[in-house]
Specification:
The strands form 2 sheets. The protein has a 6-stranded mixed beta sheet, sandwiched between helices. Strands 4-6-8-9 form a 4-stranded mixed beta sheet. The protein has 10 helices and 10 strands. The model has no long low-confidence stretch (mean pLDDT 97). Strand 2, helix 1 and strand 3 (52-56) form a beta-alpha-beta unit. The two termini are 32 Å apart. The protein has helices spanning 31-46, 76-81, 109-116, 143-151, 153-162, 168-173, 186-198, 202-214, 220-233, 238-248, and strands at 7-12, 15-20, 52-56, 61-63, 98-102, 105-107, 119-123, 127-129, 166-167, 179-181. The chain is α/β, with parallel strands linked by helices. Helix 4 (143-151) packs across helix 5 (153-162) and helix 8 packs antiparallel against helix 9. It binds octanoyl-coenzyme A. Residues 25-26, 28, 64-69, 85, 88, 105, 107-109, 131-132, 135, 140-141 line the site of octanoyl-coenzyme A.
Amino acid sequence: RKDYHDILIESHGKVGLITLNRPKALNALSSHLFHEINSALEKYDEDPNISTIVITGNERAFAAGADIKEMVGKSFADVYKTAFLGHWGKINDIRKPVIAAVNGFALGGGCELAMSCDIIYAGEKAVFGQPEIKLGIIPGAGGTQRLVRAIGKSKAMEIVLSGRNFTAKEAEQWGLVSKVLPVDKVLDEAIKLGQEIASLSQPSIQAAKESINRAFELSLKEGCHFERKLFYSLFALKDKEEGIDAFVKKRDPKWTDE
Ligand code: CO8
């Protein structure tokens, strides 16, 4: 498609794929590239033919971070007044599930982009890290917040304060990624997972995502309360009747997403 320069988009059934495509810069997330990611995410989120989204890079890099070259010479006033890179938060508003298929480097903003997705699949050679400290800065797109929630304080401190990278295997052991796969299988498996999720009733998928994400914002009591309200509200769906009836009658459900 001609509308984008630094990403490729293609759909696989109901899965919308976004491939970061700035290979010479190891998919460094320039403002322009990030605007394109946001635009594609928004289009997929609105597209009734798409149910889940996969973001990937190439074998060498998912993304090696924000574009460091854009930061040269920028002062505090410059970045503060213009809310530099403020548009990075858009992905958090996407309602449909977003899966990251990570090969190669996922560093700095690249690691943060992966962590902003709902599920991460990683290739055996993937390398994660928050090396910002080595540039005299700190993570700025949620790295200090999401990493500690995913892997706990001691490990998050070690990673962010030392700037050392960590492997796909470590990321899996620590619970940051849900699966480590051979390099050439990561994208296929992520798309397969996307298709599996897309084959279910979408209002309940979106409610489940919304509810899980509340766990990061609310106390346990409030979170369970929120979940219960959503649970009750799903009884208003035709798909709830369909799913329960299909189970009772031992047949396959036919979802209408209503
Ligand atoms: N930004 C810009 N260009 C980059 C970046 C980057 N993050 N990473 C790599 N490149 C470019 C290199 O400059 C090089 O370009 P050229 O060929 O023109 O010199 C090309 O990509 C290939 O890179 P290398 O030659 O360095 O490849 P190597 O295999 O030798 O090394 C590394 C690979 C180890 C990944 C190395 O490139 C590297 O260390 N990259 C930088 C990693 C990093 O520090 N990332 C963190 C950036 S800061 C950040 O992400 C903050 C996010 C804040 C978000 C805030 C939102 C509000």
